[in-house]
User: Fold these one by one.
Assistant:
Number 1:
Amino acid sequence: MRRRDFLATTAAAASAPALIGGCAGSPGDSGPLEYLSLAWQKESIEVNKALVAEWNERNPSVKVRYVQGAWESVHDQLLTSFEGGEAPDIIHDEANDLTDFAHGGYLADLRPLLPEDLKSQISRANWETATIAGGIYGVPFLHDPRVLIANRKLLEESGVRMPTVGRPWSWGEFEDVAKELTRSRGNSRTYGVAWSMKEPVNQSVNLTMSTGGAVFHRERGKDVIRFDEADYGVPELIHRQVNEDRTASRSTLGMAGSDTLPGFFAGRYAIVPLNFSFRQQVQQQAPDGFEWVTLPMPAGRGAPGGGQFQGVSPQTLSVSQDTSRKKAAMAFIAFMTRPDHMARLAEGDWLVPTGREALRDPALNTDEHGWSTGLRIASDLRASPVLGVRGYPEWKDKVATPAFQEYYAGSIGLRALRDKLVDDGNRILARYQR
């Protein structure tokens, strides 16, 4: 059973009516606040709805209506609702999606609304993920970092060192481990690693932080793209594993993460780099007797933070600029992100909470299913270099996705990749920064 801080819960419940009693909205306001939620896993939906029900019971004068959204359509849905003046009051989204909405004036700057206890619970590094042009446009509450999910039996049989958060593999060591794990047995082959690159851009950019790179840089107050040695260290390694060492499967380059799981369970791949939340699918789909382990991503040598940094774009809760009940909307967000509630939301989604106290929740601090690995790397997570960059979505879709896919498949070399990313990319960014 999950242990809760009942004293804190009781105190918060007692103060909630006083907190929002005077901010139920203007005289013309009517009906509940609309909360657009993108929860999609059964457990996560249940937790969200339970918290909304609890809020409504405690705050009958400022009720909230749960509205189900979907990740694949939320950007277009929000854009349409913003332009039509019908946006939900409280918005669940991802930091990566906030830039254009913030610049467009659709989201409220939360700085004057944030309660001090919420501000102090979340680190400055996490607040930076939702900071755009000096304003804070969302409360970052859940992270989905990259990890390695590995076949424990194959690793133990190979005799390679098992990495820990305190002593992860270096990228060079990871390359050697992939060679040790790559074996041919008759007509079958086990690859050391399976990189799923159907959506290659975010992971390629975020992992450059482990080698001191960023791809996106600020020069003279503007965003520019560079692709120097620190920026291409990890992409070059992936290219080498696929095309030279043959330790990474070429067939997985066109796959999404979930597409690699059947081959992983069948022993065709020893390690699959995936987002932390994929552990739920692994746990649910793994055949009986299959043993798997969650490991930290490799670290670069000599990079900041010991080379363990990686970029992330957290899930966020924002307030619509058009709502006249901003204080009430913020009070609901503060309720949803209370330490015990944030931990419940993280557990339901198999994600890492951002709050310091939520990270200490006993239900999450367990080695089972790799929870402890995700919580221990939380301090190494930084704002993705792409956050706040105007023009990034266009660059990603039109330039970077096809370029990275061609490079990883061996169709173009490093120089051609750099030319596409930098030359074409900077033309796009310049257009957004005139």
Number 2:
Amino acid sequence: MSSFQARSPGFRTSWTRPSPSPRHTSAVDRFEFGRRTSTSEREPESPKQSGREYVGFATLPDQVHRKSVKKGFEFTLMVVGESGLGKSTLVNSLFLTDLYKERKELSADERIERTVDIKRNSIDIEEQGVRLRLTVVDTPGFGDSVNCSNSWKPIIDYIEDQFAQYYEDESGLNRKNIVDNRVHCCLYFISPYGHGLRPIDVGFMQRLHDKVNIVPVLAKADCLTPTEVRTLKERVMREIREQDINIYSFPDCDSDEDEDYKQQDKELKASVPFAVIGSNTVVEVGGKRVRGRLYPWGITEVENPKHCDFVKLRNMLIRTHMQDLKEVTRDLHYENYRLRRIQDETDNPDVKQERLNSIRKDSFATKEVSEKDRMLEEKEAELRKMQDMLLKMQAEMAKQQGASGSGSNMGSLADLATNNNAGSGDSESNMPEEMSDPNDSRSSTVEV
């Protein structure tokens, strides 16, 4: 170990795999969505470190960073909860956009006959040169019926379908441009009007906790006093532990993390479930314009940590743990689905044969497309060759007309006809069939 002691500060001296901290596992470490680290803020790099010559592999993080920023990022967020809990307002407040411009209010009769639906809204967001493809999956109608025994089934089917689509694309031949539509996070809204979790809340989380990262959210926290918020949080977390529900678990901090980050991580873990307030209205408080809600007895500020946990939820979801949510989805939930899929194909030969037939079909389709492209290229080459022949013939005719000089028009035509008859053996062999036709109008004009 003597050769590994002289290292630059911050370099790990052990070969153990670090915990999946969002600040170490991705190229997104170089920037946050609210602030991007500039080159001048980084530590200066010296060509020689501890007597060793500078090789240059220290620039690998910069290479990964540039490539990741150029490609862009994708994130899929699902919001689940009964109507009236402020799901749409919270999403618009989180990303400072309006994803539900075309939404219309339903009448009472339409709400009675309504079932659980799945609606996707995608939008491209760019911030300081970083592009994010945000997809929000809404579930209108969840928990609105009298009988909610199967209200989670469409949601489970949607998540499974996205896993299946990604599995098909990953196992196919064209793996270069795979679109990741897997659900990376599910914000589950808990009603503030009850005394803890309802049966539908427990049933939903028990059936989906092994398929998606569930982040419980206490909706409309302005309806409760601070004491009631703390009491309801403790009761919800106690019931989650009693029901053996695995919600999203924040990764542990590394020992070399700074104290500010450790304190922030500690506060995030203590804030679950997040008591949030959503608002798209701007009000004036003390000469400062802020987003909040105006009541006869006062103003509730959305981005005030003393009023709600909106800032903590936004920091967790966007600035600190977005990449970790994607990695947990890839390494845990998708791998569990992939393992079940492979076991089904192994135990059931029909499923395996169907999968092989699908791969062959994709292969044949790819070959057919390539064969069509080859035929089109051959046709284009033939057309270019014919155009070149016509250009040469026109050049020869122009040259012969110029050589006749001051002769009469009839004499030039006769000379041209004589020259064409003299060289008919060569020209007819090079000309296409439609040009060597004796009944063609151009040949009859020359003979006159």
Number 3:
Amino acid sequence: MKRIRRRWLHIRSWLPVAMVAFLVTACGGGGASPSSSGSGGGGGGSGGVIKIATQSPLSGGNATLGEAIKLGAQLAVEDRAEDFKKLGFTLQLVPYDDQADPKKGVANAQMIAADQDILGVVGHLNSGVAIPSSEVYEKYSIPMVSPSNTATQVTDRGLKTVNRICARDDFQGPAGAKFAVQQLGAKKIFVIQDKTAYGQGLADAFKDAAQKLGAEIVGYEGITVGEKDFNGVLNQAKAKNPDLIYFGGTYAEGGLIVKQARDKGLNMKFMGGDALDSSSMVEIAGPAIADTYYTSIAADVTKTDEGKKWAQRYEQKFGKKVESYSSYGYDSAMVLLKAIENAIQADGGKKPTREQVRDAVRAIQDYQGIVTKVGFDNKGDNKYAKVYVYQFEPGQYPGQQIAELAKD
């Protein structure tokens, strides 16, 4: 009896390990081990499967924008699938849920590295997840094209694999400050930030630029992601009686801050960055959203006839209206796929290595996407990125685009 019990305990000890291995394989993690040389994969033969991955939050408080990135990339893969079939390859999308969590993003990046058919990543939504995850991509030469990471540190590290099609915080923050001071007439500003790489970086860039333009920063406070009650920080803001409250953070907290501020009689203008650019922001804040402005790194795709047709196609396919990063997820994926195609052609039709795709991505210049033009500099920043200013209206999304700002 003791021998049977010991054998059962032994079986139970390896069952969880076997189940994890099965789940990793089933969700696209791949069965191959990452190469210690970092050469990445799959070069040398023609034909076969080529995959690109997405990394974005598909669950939790940031899921609205994270899913938009995934769906945009999915549409791009479907649009290019026939082209790759003619080249002899089956094109696939492998979505990963990073849950807006740096640890989860890194764990996913390790699984992506293990799947030698994955030649690139579209993502992330959150800079704080992208920064540590991209260290893994760099190790295994996996190119990343981000639709939304704005923190300066994302590209300032000089990694060969990291690229973005959107503007940086050191452009977005000052652009928002210039609009707030010169167009909205803000002289006294209270700044709130969520202590993340994105939120604090954006708030600091806004604050510094606003001060240089002559505004007084009457308060600078941090909140924690996931909080629901902002009475403490709003009481501080009320005591300072600012002309404008600026928030560096995402819509999950931003919507609540706006709503609770209005409930306290704080009826001054409210402003934030691109992470407020979501239909969920309007839903959370409700009627309190009036007199709220935001800068976005994402253009309104419906401003052009081609963009309108694309938005209609997106809505028909997914049964959802486009979000701010739907089109940027699409353009990021299309840039990545163009680079893979270029690498295939440069290598005589063979399946390219990750290094070849990495270099082909960085070489992209003057690519016209559905919503933005893309040309990477030597750090992986988009030379054509712009910042847009929107105003929310109660019950309506997206906000009304009221300004378009190019970098000086």
